[in-house]
Design brief:
35% of the residues lie in helices and 19% in strands. The protein contains nine helices and ten strands. Helix 5 crosses helix 6. It is an enzyme of class 2 (transferase).
């Protein structure tokens, strides 16, 4: 995906740890990402989650939580000047996380949750909706429209231009072709690009 807020459109790059482990770890990763962040051809966002609410096991590490996690992300933002992306799993988190994050990401399993989409869209952050592994890419237009109509009730149908203007993105992360078989159908990128800017999550797509 490219952003066009400059004369020369930039490719968007989102990079960082899946989940926040510690401030020391965040600083280490942020430092190593500086060459990419300073690349004038890239629109760089530092990504890390304060809580992974969809872990497989109850005993799995989820993160430092909303308050501590956002404090650490704000520190990275202040020290490195990075734009921040983090994900939210519940509606009440949106307005709080948007005080720090430039992009709020809606997890794939929650991509149809109206209340969450509306809550995120009511903030000033860019909305990045991950396509569920169970979703027909064409049907993601309805999630996009929920976000767009929250921001502008006069919008009746989603288009790439309208979504870009209103800060609503989609993210491709693969589709389930049978049990435990995740495949990236590259046609999804073209299909979804008809009604929104599209990010490709290459890392999770090869899980």
């Amino acid at each position: 995906m490219k952003t066009s807020n400059t004369k020369t459109p930039k490719s968007v790059l989102i990079a960082g740890p899946c989940v926040i482990e510690s401030l020391e770890n965040l600083r280490s990763i942020a430092t190593k990402l500086q060459p990419l962040a300073n690349n004038e051809r890239l629109d760089f966002y530092f990504k890390a989650s304060f809580d992974k609410a969809n872990r497989t096991s109850l005993e799995s590490y989820r993160g430092p939580g909303l308050e501590k996690g956002l404090e650490m992300l704000q520190t990275i933002k202040d020290e490195f000047g990075y734009q921040i992306l983090t994900d939210v799993h519940e509606s009440y988190q949106a307005s709080v996380a948007a005080k720090v994050a430039d992009i709020l990401q809606i997890p794939a399993f929650l991509c149809r949750q109206t209340d969450l989409i509306v809550a995120v869209s009511q903030t000033n952050a860019i909305v990045n909706i991950k396509k569920g592994q169970f979703m027909n890419p064409k049907d993601m237009q309805y999630s996009v429209l929920k976000a767009l109509k929250t921001r502008d009730s006069s919008i009746q149908s989603p288009t790439h231009e309208t979504a870009l203007k209103n800060g609503v993105w989609l993210c491709e992360r693969g589709s389930s072709f049978g049990y435990g078989n995740l495949v990236v159908d590259m046609r999804s990128l073209k299909i979804m690009r008809e009604f929104a800017p599209v990010i490709f999550d290459a890392t999770h797509s090869v899980q």
